[in-house]
Amino acid sequence: MNVLVLAHGEEITPGWLLDALEEVEADHALVDLSRGDPIPETGFDKIVVLGGHMGAYEVDEYPWLATEKEFIRLHLADETPLLGVCLGSQLVADVIGGRAYRSPETEAGLITLQPTGAGAADATVAAIEGPVVAWHNDTFELPADAELLAFTDGYPHAFRHGSALGVQFHPEVTPEMWRGWIQKVGTGDLVEAGVDPEELERRISTEASRLRSQAVAFFRSWLEE
User: Which residues, 6+ apart, have CB-to-CB distance to 198 below 8 Å?
Assistant: First the structure.
């Protein structure tokens, strides 16, 4: 199996996804669109679209987003399995006829998802059995033909549409990744969201083993669909 992974910045890495890829003996190619890497048109079986600090609607500031959206549109039309994470889920929502937009409040921390009936029956989403890492300033609306799988009190968090699975949370985040994000963007968003940055970092480190096991189960389930 060959997996194409689309990233949007040097701090946006596959994290725990790499462990799942290794377990299923899948090859992968990492393409960072923010630095101008070309997107290969063929040679892959599945696509993962990672997160990023930009909004799916900021095409004027990040023109390569238009190219990425068209790439997603074409491969969803071909029914290529695609997993969108955070920004990736927002890009998918935008492409399938929904809308990505600035959320009224930042949602961040270790959060507990509420599955819908469809989400509880979805083997991949059901692999998320405990709190997950989240940090997003944007959200999305889904078209009527998308199926919502999980949510929090404030936001949608997982959906399926055709060959796409979108998740707003971050199953891939390792403690090292989290510290890198904090070093790059600071803790202002977290404080504004009512989150204690030091306590959250401690919890992510303390729960690293559980987060890894949960993430690998989630990614492996999707890879083996």
Answer: none
